[in-house]
Amino acid sequence: MERIDKILSSQNIASRSEVKDMIRKKRISVNGKIVLKPDEKFEPETAEICVDGKVISFKKYVYIMMNKPSGVLSASNDRYAETVIDLLPKEMQRRGLFPAGRLDKDTEGFILITDDGELAHKMLSPKSHVYKLYQAVVDKVLTGEDVTAFKNGIGEFLPAEMKILDEHTALVEICEGKFHQVKKMFNAVGANVTYLKRLRIGTLFLDETLEKGGFRELSESEIRDILCTKHGI
Ligand code: URA
Question: 135: Cβ below 6 Å to ligand 1?
Fold first, then answer.
């Protein structure tokens, strides 16, 4: 059971003080009865909550796709640096939101922000075989030998597919998420990564209409695509 003001603010319907005001104006009802106090408690997943007579569909978890800019930390909070959570508007900064997986501070692209720990675990576990696609720009001319080295598996890393787009640019698909993995793999073939962007998780591509720092919620089918194990560049 949760307080009605907490339930509605968790769904980004209104802030807790706005809910108070809405209650005063008798705009909120639960199971057909007008709510009179903000501390009245209900079961959020089963109660029929209405605002201005319209039923609110309660979402247990939030799933946000963000186009992470370089220079922002993929962490929930940090004393000094700006985090991906700081980029969300206050009313979306729901308790417990975290980035599922880490992109380096200088890496751009698709980061999933959620409060669904189980989905994050599935997405990140190498056992789940959820592939992530990156675009990398490197400081040496890439060759077929580098593609073969990736295919055979570099050091501690599982075999990975790499496709050369031009002399210095490649796509790389990996299903692990080890620390600095893509950079380390390129280092092993004598290349330094000068730009890195994540383009896809599972079969879901970054929405290219999102500007840097832009975000949007995912639909249910997009959430399923994130866990899809189909791969290949
Ligand atoms: N691999 C890296 O080296 N860095 C990232 O941010 C993601 C994958």
Answer: no
The pTM is what? 0.88
Query: In the CATH hierarchy, which top-level class contains the domain 2-55?
Result: alpha beta
Tokens describing residue 103: 């992109």
SS3 call for 90: helix
Amino acid at 115: D
Give 43-61 pLDDT, tens digit per residue.
Answer: 999 999 999 999 998 888 9
- In CATH terms, the fold of domain 63-226 is Pseudouridine synthase (3.30.2350)
* pLDDT at 122 > cutoff 80: yes
Residue 159 and residue 82: Cα distance in Å, rounded? 34
Chain-wide mean pLDDT for the chain?
95
| pLDDT value at residue 137 | 98
Stronger pLDDT, 151 or 93, i.e. the higher one: 151
- Residues recorded for the chain: 233
Domain locations along the chain: 2-55, 63-226
State the Cα–Cα distance between residues 4 and 2, nearest whole angstrom: 6
- In ligand 1, which atom is closest to the CA atom of 102? 6
Nearest to 134 by CA among 86, 71, 182: 182
Atom of ligand 1 nearest to the CA of 185: 3
Three-state DSSP at 190 gives coil
Question: Three-class SS of residue 144?
Answer: helix
